[in-house]
Amino acid sequence: MHGNAFEPIQIPARVWDRDESREILKNRDIPGLFSLAVKYAGASQTRISAATGIAQGRVSQHMRGQRQVTDLEVYERIAAGLSLPDHARMLLGLAPLDIASPTGDHGDEHQEQTEELTARIAAAAAIDPTMVMILSADTNNLRLLDRRLGSATIADKMRAQISQIERAHHHAVRPGIRAQLAHVLAETESLAGWQAINTGALNDAWTHYENAKAAAREADDPALLAYVSAEQAYVLMDLGQPAQATELLQYIHTTHRDRIPDRLRTWLSSAEAEAAAILGDEATCRAALDQATALLPDGPGDPDTPYLSIDAHHLARWRGNCLVRFGDPGTVEDLRSALAGMDGTYNRAESALRCDLGHALLALGDPEAAQPHIQRAQHLATMTGSRRQRKRIDELTQLVTRALR
Which SUPFAM superfamilies does the record associate with it (predicted)? Predict the structure, then answer.
């Protein structure tokens, strides 16, 4: 009898002593674990979903090998949902629940755990500042690829990069190296968070930003902490909670304003303006945009903050994105100026900009001029896999089609 969707999943204890099961656990083979639940507990995907808190669609993707688990919190939920005994939890790389007697008579597994931990600490001890620089450069290269190609193309590389940095950081002992690895981890998790926002995976995005904030705190970098915390506000905006996003952004700006560079303050003010625009608060939006303009330093960027891209052209794009909501007639020129200044590597950003320009031209009563921009935006959004942009493009396409009839 398979039981209802909310009945606990109980896999017989003997199953965890099988060689096959131990290999599944040691390899963190989630499809294999779910298959054990199906085979030995008669669990359906719905029941696995209820037990682990993972959406049924994602359970299906995991079982087909189309999705991977990278977050420790998700492993914990799976272990709890499948009622893993402590020796099985430890093979999966998790702490035992019964600290007093974690593994019973499983001395071999204890020894394997000891050997594995020793090897990982030794591997982390070999990491020096040069290797940290290489990892940082790898993250920056992924950032550049993301701008051009979108997240779907580099998804496997992103998962591998996070896993590699996370494992090194988790087992590093020297404080200086740990802090440097934490800095790279924060940047990488933040990039993953932004990619998740663009694909509509908002829960994943929130988790990535929580991980990024924890790493930025350990790195003791106020600028990085302010940046990744503020990016998390975009999850709130996409959830339809711009008031909470505004509150968060203003708190971050007030808390960190004396310890962060002006370029980052420009970015924060621009983000505040965007949240205010979504709220329909034109006065606050314009005040924040004026502050961003006043704070913007000369030059294209700062090598110490490679994650931050904002110059006069980016700011013009941001201004247009905000003011198009209020029918400002100057929006078209702001957006055309931003488009002329783009360097051709920001494909996803160009998609958003052309959306804004099409919207502005449509508001001015010129759907014919708007149409090619919206078509180009659709091409770029499809190429970069941005569901976030495609939703808006579909709405604008319908408006243009009706206006041209």
Answer: lambda repressor-like DNA-binding domains (SSF47413), TPR-like (SSF48452)
Question: Which two three-digit tokens encode residue 158?
Answer: 């992103």
Q: How many residues does the chain have?
A: 405
DSSP 27: T
Query: What global pTM score does this model have?
Result: 0.68
Give me the residue label for tokens 């303006």: 273
Q: What is the separation, in whole angstroms, between the first and last Cα of the chain? A: 60
Sequence-distant (6+) residues with CB within 8 A of 354 are 339, 373, 374, 376, 377, 380
Helix (H) or strand (E) segment spanning residue 317: helix 312-323
Q: Give exposure, 129-145, as e/b (b: 16+ Cβ within 10 Å).
A: eeebeebbebbbebbeb
CA–CA gap between residue 261 and residue 257 (Å, rounded): 8
pLDDT tens-digit readout, 235-267: 999 999 999 999 999 999 999 988 899 999 999
Q: Is 6 helix (H, G, I), strand (E, B) or coil?
A: coil
Instruction: Give the tens place of pLDDT for each residue, 32-66.
Output: 999 999 998 888 888 898 888 888 888 999 998 88
